Structures
1.
Amino acid sequence: MNDGSPIADVVARMQDRLAALPTELAHRRFFLSTYLRTTQAVGRAIDHARFEDPEWVELWDVKFAELYLQALDGQFVARPWRLAFDAPGELPPLAHVLLGINAHVNYDLPQALLAVISDEDFLDQRLLDRRRRDHERIDGVLAERVSAEDDELAASSAKSLLDRVLTPLNRLSSQRFLRESRQKVWHNTVELQHARLDGSYDKRLAELEVLSAAKVADLLRPGQVLLRLAVTGFGVTLPPV
């Protein structure tokens, strides 16, 4: 990741937020730290030419991160983020990470994609296919982080015997719901783009907020979250109009 790049700037802003977290909000560091390391990994993937359009991926990744930073700073906190931020601090670190991922991917990611894919771009099928392929390539970067992030979380808390036994399954489940959620995100992006054209964008975004908040609320229920996600899925789907 090149110093002075837009992604390096976002990473620095995340590091500033991490250093400034007050004690009473210490539980927010679990998702923030995970997201910081993931953003660094995306930056390295861009440097290593793993995307067809690296400049576009960098712009998109920065737009995506800025939506999270706005919520973290309290500038605009949609209901999925309110539920994730207000979750009990004593929840396991993994739970806080999953709550953050859920709110950010299901609610923020379609908005970030629309911010960097114009209505004219949607008319260019070759360009749109390239955007979708780069969107899917992010899965490879994230999948590579699953094992390392599991180790980070293990170091931050004592794992129960059940958690240790389930770790391999949890990692497989993580990769599965990453793929599943990304497919749904693309669907929701297309639905929101249609809404952008016909003037119903605010209404459809409000629907996405409700669906995303309901999924976060479901994650707050007691039990093995990753096992439940393996059955119910991670993403949400906007119904067709």
2.
Amino acid sequence: MVLDGQYLERPALVDAGGITLEGLYHRGTRRPALLVCPAPGPGGGMDAPAVAELAWAAARAGHPSLRFQHRGVGASTGVPDPGRALDDADAALRHLAETAGPRLAVAALGAAADTALALAAAHRDVVDRVVLVAPERPPPAIAAGLRVLAIVPEVGAAAGAAVLAAALGPGGRVEVIEGADPLFRAGLPRLGRAAVEWISRGGAAPGV
């Protein structure tokens, strides 16, 4: 039984074409549902504080969410292969769509930014908004109609706010988290609130 103030988190097994990916799913009634992509490679994973906070913030706001481990990481089967990150994310997106319906948003941490943007561009029929947390570089291109929020730490950001704002264009936005570093050892609650506000409002600015 789930009591008031509690959030149901259940394990998810994602079929990725012969590979099984470990995932964690939060149920919810609001849409869009949120897929959270962890950074591939060493040091990544769905238990990174920023990845977990994005999933929990979505749950607190009533949005379903799914975060996952790439192949060969955690309990996911297969051999680690950062070159297959998009394949893993695509499988997780399809799993979430089957579980929570077709209205989806995508969030990503660090090096997963390119994966999230490519995934959203390939699924424009169901994804229209993306949240990039501490992206390592400005995106080279944004798919038409895709609304992108970049959230960066105040200290040590790999890609600066001004550069990101120019790359995202008029449909995008950059949020700087005061006092945060690239690992978000501070500022996690504000990170979560900014991400959920973006997906809940369809990318509209506050008050719109």
3.
Amino acid sequence: MARKSETVDTTPPPPVSDEQVVSYLKDHANFLLDHPDLLGKLAPPSRFNGGPVVDLQQHVISRLREEMEHLRGCAEHLITTSRSNMSTQTRTHEAALAILEAGSMTGLARVVAEDLPALLDVDIATIGFEEGDRPLPIIPGIRTFPRDFLEQTLGAGDVMLRSSTTGDPAIFGDGAELVASCALVRLDPKDLPNGLLAMGSRNERGFHGGQGTELLGFLARVVEDCIQRWWLED
């Protein structure tokens, strides 16, 4: 025997009355303590009902709410930035350890080309040295630059961050087309040719002028120390 179809009651529930709200709050005295965000949503009563007197309380409360929202936004931005900085610092330390474990100039060239992109979340990394009085090691992955190339590229600085740029084939070779932003870091190993550690990203804002350069400088010092130990071993 066929069952009768059941009808679904789609009638919306009646709105909550003011009396019900008041009664609920009386029975739950800690409700606003448990939900402090609601206080910022409530409209406080005016102390004056019309007339020539202006109630500045409303204006002050409105300003305080705006300041609270601004402070909340600043706090969230600070937390996000701190987490990003910690992640970058951890990545840099891991990259430094990989470089120290390379063991030779050949190993250094391999770590820069193969390991640094993944460790530092970039798309390409290269290393090279200027031609000078001392012969450069002939090692795959180590690029050769003409004399004064670093001065023309970096000027007097040690680190250059470029956003919304195109990659220089002299620095990035065939991978220059991948580069939309880059970091160029001077290498100045004692009594050895000057060099350049370069990293490029597809992201136009992967590197930009507002970033700090301390960690890049730290990584350059690690690379310089390794170069001084391994230069003649290959």
